[in-house]
């Protein structure tokens, strides 16, 4: 059964069929001809795969990101970040990273951050003398912070599939997200001396205050979300709706940057993106179901434990495998496909599933910035007219700090678990 499933999937992928569609067809063909299960079971499994209350948050976070991009909130956030670090060498690049860290607390999507922040920031960096490819590479690397600092769409998906507290996953992302930003800024400081990156003239306190005042209401978003979750006012799923409503009020009524004519386009874009994500979850759920029936998870656990019981060795192997797969397949597909397989292995080794969730999500976010199929590479390349081949070469050094942070959180679990253990003790 598993052999037939994999052969069918590979043949469809080679034929150029989209991965999500290929998985769905492979599942139906396998169940129809190679199992005693009724074919209708494949359809039922695909439907139940998206039948989760937690997944309701995905369209709301998508809507939040779209409202903020169209509403010009990203521009205000970048202006505030630039006022803080612009006068130092490579200040515009530092501001790029800081703005992405702030935006990470609002959208929950690396692709949304790359698409929204990228156009604004890359144009500004170019005007100051940065090479377009360098500006684009830094933007791609910084966008990976989006799903690590809460809220996070990948964490919502992982939490639903692994039956782990999404609130703890959100809180666990704060320290790794900060480390990602600091590591990128460290490389920018080195690169600044190498390429003699420019700096802004010194800012007066009055200018910093003006930039802060203009961005203040936007900066409240992550505070409202995390504060509401920790205080018990709303759940992480309900927080997504709160974020969308707040983004709409901010963009439409207060800043008045979103017009009535913009709303249909925003909603349609949100529906289309949500439909794509949901379809991927659906078909991949059917694929994972057959892998579970085929006892692939059990075989993986038994084979791994036959080689070693050392969780650190296993985590290293898993990290290497995920980094390689992340270069070749879409991150969302891998997350949905591998979570049911790897979670039993982590349980058998005593690895905390919140800790592993951050490891897995960070791994896959590095994948969205890595050639040849990194989604953020394509988004930034297309939106800013940067040659994809040049961007792929330029981005490689900027993935190194992210991999170092991945190793740190893998082998120092406290970097992930300290905040959720402190703020959600006993929950």
- Helix fraction bin: over 70%
| Radius of gyration from CA coordinates | 22 Å
What count of structural domains? 2
Percentage beta strand: under 5%
Number of strands: 0
Regions with little confidence, pLDDT below 50 for 5+ residues: none
Which short descriptors sum up this protein?
21 helices, 2 domains, about 425 residues, mainly alpha
Write structural notes for this entry.
This protein has helices at 2-14, 19-33, 40-48, 57-70, 73-85, 91-107, 110-127, 132-143, 153-162, 166-172, 174-195, 205-231, 236-254, 263-293, 296-307, 311-328, 331-349, 353-368, 375-384, 388-411, 414-423. By secondary structure, the chain is mainly alpha-helical. The protein is built from 21 helices and no strands. The two termini are 41 Å apart. The chain has 2 domains: 1-48, no CATH class; 49-423, no CATH class. The chain is globular and about 70 Å long. α3 (40-48) packs across α14 (263-293). 79% of the residues lie in helices and 0% in strands.
Short account of what is shown:
By secondary structure, the protein is mainly α.
Q: How are the SSEs ordered, and which strands pair?
A:
Elements: H1 2-14, H2 19-33, H3 40-48, H4 57-70, H5 73-85, H6 91-107, H7 110-127, H8 132-143, H9 153-162, H10 166-172, H11 174-195, H12 205-231, H13 236-254, H14 263-293, H15 296-307, H16 311-328, H17 331-349, H18 353-368, H19 375-384, H20 388-411, H21 414-423
Helix pairs in contact: 1-2, 2-3, 2-14, 3-14, 4-7, 4-13, 4-14, 5-6, 5-12, 6-7, 6-8, 6-11, 7-8, 7-19, 8-19, 8-20, 9-17, 9-18, 10-21, 11-20, 12-13, 14-17, 15-17, 16-17, 16-18, 16-20, 17-18, 18-20
């Amino acid at each position: 059964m598993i052999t037939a499933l994999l052969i069918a999937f590979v043949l469809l992928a080679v034929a150029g069929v989209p991965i999500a569609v290929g998985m769905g067809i492979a599942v139906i063909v396998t169940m129809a001809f190679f199992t005693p299960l009724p074919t209708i079971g494949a359809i039922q499994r695909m439907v139940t795969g998206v039948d989760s209350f937690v997944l309701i948050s995905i369209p709301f976070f998508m809507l939040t990101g779209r409202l903020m991009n169209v509403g010009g909130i990203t521009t205000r956030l970048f202006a505030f970040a630039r006022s803080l670090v612009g006068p130092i060498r490579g200040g515009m690049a530092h501001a790029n990273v800081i703005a992405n860290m702030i935006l990470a607390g609002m959208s929950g999507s690396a692709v949304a951050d790359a698409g929204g922040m990228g156009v604004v920031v890359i144009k500004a960096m170019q005007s100051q003398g940065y090479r377009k490819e360098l500006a684009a590479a830094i933007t791609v690397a910084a966008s990976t912070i989006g799903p690590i600092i809460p809220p996070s769409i990948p964490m919502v998906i992982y939490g639903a599939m692994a039956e782990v507290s999404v609130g703890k996953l959100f809180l666990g992302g704060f320290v790794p997200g900060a480390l990602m930003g600091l590591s990128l800024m460290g490389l920018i400081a080195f690169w600044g001396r190498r390429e003699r990156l420019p700096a802004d003239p010194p800012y007066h306190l009055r200018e910093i205050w003006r930039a802060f005042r203009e961005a203040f209401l936007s900066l409240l978003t992550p505070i409202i979300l995390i504060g509401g979750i920790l205080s018990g006012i709303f759940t992480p799923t309900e927080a997504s709706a709160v974020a969308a409503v707040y983004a709409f009020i901010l963009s439409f009524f207060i800043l008045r940057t979103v017009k009535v004519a913009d709303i249909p386009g925003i909603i349609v874009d949100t529906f289309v993106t949500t439909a794509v994500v949901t379809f991927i979850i659906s078909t991949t759920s059917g694929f994972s179901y057959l892998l579970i029936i085929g006892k692939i998870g059990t075989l993986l656990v038994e084979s791994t434990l036959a080689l070693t019981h050392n969780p650190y060795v296993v985590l290293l192997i898993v990290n290497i495998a995920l980094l390689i797969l992340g270069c070749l397949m879409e991150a969302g597909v891998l997350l949905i496909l591998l979570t049911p397989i790897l979670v039993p292995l982590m349980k058998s080794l005593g690895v905390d599933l919140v800790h592993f969730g951050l490891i897995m999500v960070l791994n896959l976010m590095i994948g969205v910035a890595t050639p040849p199929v990194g989604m953020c590479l394509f988004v930034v390349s297309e939106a800013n007219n940067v040659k994809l081949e040049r961007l792929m070469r330029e981005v490689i050094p900027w993935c190194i700090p992210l991999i170092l942070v991945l190793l740190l959180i893998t082998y120092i679990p406290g970097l992930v678990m300290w905040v959720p253990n402190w703020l959600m003790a006993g929950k």
